[in-house]
């Protein structure tokens, strides 16, 4: 399976350096010199990883990364920049970048970072993964990532999230969730479901609730971001 890397870099010398090196390593390379073209390419699909310069002519890379995360947060992003300030690195990670490398850098270092990010996203084998709205679940390893950051869920929270993400927009009553998740008919108070969902919302940073939505008088549903 070929890995398609989008290089977003307005400096033609650096762009050519990256294109030649990445193609030599067996990657398919797409180049964009500005943010608008970058976002259009991502919208069309088929991009597996983005190498994103921060200083672009039409929009800074932080804003581009935010838009990538909002529209398709399953794409890994490595930011590349001349800015070495720790505040910039923190901002890059906070807006959803998976890694941050400062110019000048060795190609071997960039290649190692690319491979590490791709391993984290399991790009070579997606059959055990569910992803939506910035959340990636690996059903085999039981790992969960929210905006590329690992999140630790209890078995019940994991099962709840799995049911919701496998059935987007479907409304579940509390009784159905109890039976599905806990594996038995529960005749007591159903607020145990509310407790688990509240904890899950905390962990996936869904407060105020926009993903796991309360359907008043009925139950809950998972509402993916558009």
**Helix coverage percent:** 40-55%
**Would you state the CATH class of the largest domain?**
Alpha Beta
| Radius of gyration, taken over Cα atoms and rounded to an integer in Å | 20 Å
* Approximate strand percentage: 15-25%
CATH topology of the largest domain: the name is Rossmann fold
CATH architecture of the largest domain: 3-Layer(aba) Sandwich
Can you identify the CATH superfamily of the largest domain? Response regulator
Describe this structure in words.
The structure is a single chain. The chain is α/β, with parallel strands linked by helices and 226 residues long. It folds into 2 domains: 4-121, Response regulator (Rossmann fold, 3-Layer(aba) Sandwich), CATH 3.40.50.2300; 129-222, Winged helix-like DNA-binding domain superfamily/Winged helix DNA-binding domain (Arc Repressor Mutant, subunit A, Orthogonal Bundle). Helices cover 41% and strands 22% of the residues. The chain has helices spanning 12-24, 35-44, 61-72, 86-94, 107-121, 155-166, 174-182, 191-203, and strands at 4-8, 28-32, 49-53, 77-81, 99-102, 129-132, 135-138, 143-146, 149-151, 172-173, 212-215, 219-222. The strands form 3 sheets. It has a 5-stranded parallel sheet, with helices on both faces. A 4-stranded antiparallel sheet has the order 6-7-8-9, covered by helices on one side. It starts with a strand and ends with a strand. The mean pLDDT is 86.
